[in-house]
Protein backbone atom coordinates (compact mmCIF):
# COMPACT_ATOMS: atom_id res chain seq x y z
CA UNK A 1 0.00 0.00 0.00
CA UNK A 2 2.94 2.33 0.69
CA UNK A 3 4.14 1.99 -2.91
CA UNK A 4 0.70 2.86 -4.26
CA UNK A 5 0.58 5.97 -2.04
CA UNK A 6 3.99 7.14 -3.31
CA UNK A 7 2.95 6.59 -6.95
CA UNK A 8 -0.33 8.43 -6.51
CA UNK A 9 1.54 11.22 -4.72
CA UNK A 10 4.13 11.50 -7.52
CA UNK A 11 1.54 11.41 -10.27
CA UNK A 12 -0.66 14.00 -8.60
CA UNK A 13 2.35 16.21 -7.79
CA UNK A 14 3.43 16.08 -11.44
CA UNK A 15 -0.06 16.92 -12.62
CA UNK A 16 -0.55 19.71 -10.08
CA UNK A 17 2.75 21.42 -10.83
CA UNK A 18 2.71 20.63 -14.52
CA UNK A 19 5.26 18.83 -16.63
CA UNK A 20 8.86 19.98 -16.34
CA UNK A 21 9.92 22.33 -19.09
CA UNK A 22 12.36 21.12 -21.69
CA UNK A 23 13.41 17.63 -22.72
CA UNK A 24 16.82 16.73 -21.34
CA UNK A 25 17.47 13.66 -23.55
CA UNK A 26 16.44 12.39 -26.96
CA UNK A 27 16.57 8.67 -27.78
CA UNK A 28 15.85 6.79 -31.01
CA UNK A 29 14.94 3.15 -31.55
CA UNK A 30 13.59 0.81 -34.20
CA UNK A 31 10.40 -1.21 -33.83
CA UNK A 32 11.11 -4.43 -31.93
CA UNK A 33 14.41 -3.21 -30.41
CA UNK A 34 15.17 -2.38 -26.79
CA UNK A 35 16.08 1.16 -25.79
CA UNK A 36 17.64 2.63 -22.64
CA UNK A 37 16.05 5.83 -21.32
CA UNK A 38 18.67 7.51 -19.10
CA UNK A 39 17.97 8.97 -15.68
CA UNK A 40 20.68 9.59 -13.08
CA UNK A 41 19.83 9.70 -9.40
CA UNK A 42 21.58 9.79 -6.05
CA UNK A 43 22.26 6.94 -3.68
CA UNK A 44 19.56 8.36 -1.39
CA UNK A 45 16.72 7.73 -3.86
CA UNK A 46 13.73 6.25 -2.08
CA UNK A 47 11.18 6.06 -4.90
CA UNK A 48 11.13 6.26 -8.66
CA UNK A 49 8.30 6.49 -11.19
CA UNK A 50 8.61 6.47 -14.99
CA UNK A 51 5.60 7.86 -16.85
CA UNK A 52 4.53 8.80 -20.34
CA UNK A 53 1.84 11.42 -19.88
CA UNK A 54 -0.30 10.11 -17.00
CA UNK A 55 0.39 6.43 -17.78
CA UNK A 56 2.78 4.69 -15.37
CA UNK A 57 5.48 2.76 -17.25
CA UNK A 58 7.42 1.42 -14.24
CA UNK A 59 8.16 2.26 -10.61
CA UNK A 60 10.43 1.45 -7.67
CA UNK A 61 10.14 -0.05 -5.10
CA UNK A 62 7.90 -2.62 -6.68
CA UNK A 63 6.25 -5.54 -5.01
CA UNK A 64 6.48 -8.50 -7.40
CA UNK A 65 2.78 -9.23 -6.87
CA UNK A 66 1.53 -5.65 -7.19
CA UNK A 67 2.01 -4.24 -10.68
CA UNK A 68 -1.48 -2.71 -10.85
CA UNK A 69 -0.32 0.93 -11.25
CA UNK A 70 1.68 0.02 -14.40
CA UNK A 71 -0.11 0.66 -17.68
CA UNK A 72 -1.10 -2.64 -19.29
CA UNK A 73 0.89 -1.98 -22.49
CA UNK A 74 4.17 -1.78 -20.48
CA UNK A 75 3.75 -4.90 -18.34
CA UNK A 76 6.73 -7.29 -18.62
CA UNK A 77 8.51 -4.93 -21.07
CA UNK A 78 10.51 -2.76 -18.66
CA UNK A 79 13.57 -3.10 -16.48
CA UNK A 80 14.87 -0.75 -13.78
CA UNK A 81 18.41 -0.77 -12.41
CA UNK A 82 17.89 1.10 -9.13
CA UNK A 83 17.73 -2.09 -7.06
CA UNK A 84 21.21 -3.06 -8.39
CA UNK A 85 22.87 0.36 -8.62
CA UNK A 86 21.55 3.16 -6.41
CA UNK A 87 22.68 5.96 -8.78
CA UNK A 88 21.03 4.53 -11.89
CA UNK A 89 17.33 5.30 -12.34
CA UNK A 90 17.40 4.50 -16.06
CA UNK A 91 14.63 2.51 -17.72
CA UNK A 92 15.21 -0.26 -20.26
CA UNK A 93 12.18 -0.62 -22.52
CA UNK A 94 11.96 -3.88 -24.49
CA UNK A 95 10.16 -4.62 -27.79
CA UNK A 96 9.36 -0.99 -28.62
CA UNK A 97 6.57 -0.19 -31.04
CA UNK A 98 5.53 2.98 -32.84
CA UNK A 99 3.01 3.79 -30.09
CA UNK A 100 5.88 3.93 -27.57
CA UNK A 101 7.08 7.21 -29.13
CA UNK A 102 6.65 10.19 -26.83
CA UNK A 103 8.08 12.12 -23.90
CA UNK A 104 8.85 9.95 -20.87
CA UNK A 105 9.29 11.52 -17.45
CA UNK A 106 11.47 10.06 -14.71
CA UNK A 107 10.32 11.21 -11.25
CA UNK A 108 13.01 10.64 -8.60
CA UNK A 109 12.05 11.02 -4.93
CA UNK A 110 15.14 11.52 -2.73
CA UNK A 111 15.57 11.88 1.04
CA UNK A 112 17.45 15.15 1.56
CA UNK A 113 17.25 15.05 5.35
CA UNK A 114 15.02 13.18 7.73
CA UNK A 115 11.42 14.00 6.86
CA UNK A 116 12.34 16.27 3.89
CA UNK A 117 12.29 14.89 0.39
CA UNK A 118 13.14 16.27 -3.00
CA UNK A 119 11.40 15.45 -6.27
CA UNK A 120 13.49 15.78 -9.43
CA UNK A 121 11.75 15.15 -12.77
CA UNK A 122 13.71 14.42 -15.94
CA UNK A 123 12.31 14.05 -19.47
CA UNK A 124 13.40 11.80 -22.33
CA UNK A 125 11.89 12.12 -25.79
CA UNK A 126 11.73 8.71 -27.50
CA UNK A 127 11.25 8.42 -31.26
CA UNK A 128 10.56 4.97 -32.69
CA UNK A 129 11.20 4.23 -36.38
CA UNK A 130 10.07 1.40 -38.61
CA UNK A 131 12.74 -0.76 -40.22
CA UNK A 132 13.31 -0.03 -43.90
CA UNK A 133 13.11 -3.03 -46.27
CA UNK A 134 12.67 -5.39 -43.33
CA UNK A 135 16.28 -4.94 -42.18
CA UNK A 136 17.23 -4.68 -38.54
CA UNK A 137 18.89 -1.56 -37.17
CA UNK A 138 22.42 -1.59 -35.77
CA UNK A 139 23.27 0.48 -32.72
CA UNK A 140 26.76 2.00 -32.70
CA UNK A 141 28.02 4.75 -30.46
CA UNK A 142 24.55 5.52 -29.15
CA UNK A 143 23.11 6.10 -32.59
CA UNK A 144 20.82 3.76 -34.46
CA UNK A 145 21.82 3.05 -38.02
CA UNK A 146 20.13 0.97 -40.67
CA UNK A 147 22.22 -2.06 -41.64
CA UNK A 148 21.18 -1.66 -45.29
CA UNK A 149 23.68 1.21 -45.54
CA UNK A 150 26.45 -1.28 -44.74
CA UNK A 151 25.18 -3.70 -47.40
CA UNK A 152 25.04 -0.91 -50.00
CA UNK A 153 28.41 0.58 -49.00
CA UNK A 154 30.42 -2.59 -49.66
CA UNK A 155 29.41 -2.97 -53.36
CA UNK A 156 29.94 0.75 -53.95
CA UNK A 157 33.43 0.48 -52.48
CA UNK A 158 34.17 -2.52 -54.73
CA UNK A 159 33.03 -0.60 -57.84
CA UNK A 160 35.20 2.40 -56.89
CA UNK A 161 38.26 0.14 -56.46
CA UNK A 162 37.64 -1.57 -59.83
CA UNK A 163 37.22 1.80 -61.58
CA UNK A 164 40.42 3.14 -59.98
CA UNK A 165 42.38 0.03 -61.05
CA UNK A 166 40.99 0.35 -64.60
CA UNK A 167 41.98 4.01 -64.74
CA UNK A 168 45.53 3.24 -63.55
CA UNK A 169 45.91 0.45 -66.17
CA UNK A 170 44.62 2.75 -68.94
CA UNK A 171 47.02 5.53 -67.95
CA UNK A 172 49.92 3.08 -67.91
CA UNK A 173 49.01 1.74 -71.37
CA UNK A 174 48.78 5.30 -72.76
CA UNK A 175 52.19 6.17 -71.31
CA UNK A 176 53.78 3.10 -72.93
CA UNK A 177 52.20 3.94 -76.28
CA UNK A 178 53.50 7.51 -76.06
CA UNK A 179 57.01 6.26 -75.21
CA UNK A 180 56.96 3.98 -78.28
CA UNK A 181 55.91 6.86 -80.51
CA UNK A 182 58.81 8.99 -79.25
CA UNK A 183 61.40 6.46 -80.38
CA UNK A 184 63.20 7.80 -83.46
CA UNK A 185 64.50 5.25 -85.91
CA UNK A 186 67.83 6.27 -87.34
CA UNK A 187 68.72 4.45 -90.53
CA UNK A 188 71.78 2.32 -90.21
CA UNK A 189 74.76 3.15 -92.38
CA UNK A 190 77.16 0.65 -93.73
CA UNK A 191 80.73 1.77 -93.96
CA UNK A 192 80.90 4.09 -96.76
CA UNK A 193 77.53 3.16 -98.18
CA UNK A 194 74.25 4.52 -97.19
CA UNK A 195 71.47 2.17 -97.00
From TrEMBL:
The chain crosses the membrane at residues 152-171. Residues 1-18 form the signal peptide. Residues 20-117 form the Ig-like domain. The keyword Cell cycle does not apply. The keyword Transmembrane applies. Pfam families: V-set (PF07686). InterPro entries: Ig-like_dom, Ig-like_dom_sf, Ig-like_fold, Ig_sub, Ig_V-set, T-cell_Activation_Regulation. It is found in: Cell membrane. GO terms for biological process: cell surface receptor signaling pathway; cellular response to lipopolysaccharide; immune response; negative regulation of T cell proliferation; positive regulation of T cell proliferation; T cell costimulation. It comes from the Eukaryota. It is a single-pass type I membrane protein. This is Hepatitis A virus cellular receptor 2. The lineage of its organism: Eukaryota, Metazoa, Chordata, Craniata, Vertebrata.
Amino acid sequence: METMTVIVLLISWGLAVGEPTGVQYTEKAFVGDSVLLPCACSGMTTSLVWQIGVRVVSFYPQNENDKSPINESYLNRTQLFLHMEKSNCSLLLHKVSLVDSGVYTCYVLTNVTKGITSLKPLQVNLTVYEHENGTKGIQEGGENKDSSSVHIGIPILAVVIILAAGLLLTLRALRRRKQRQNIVYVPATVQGNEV
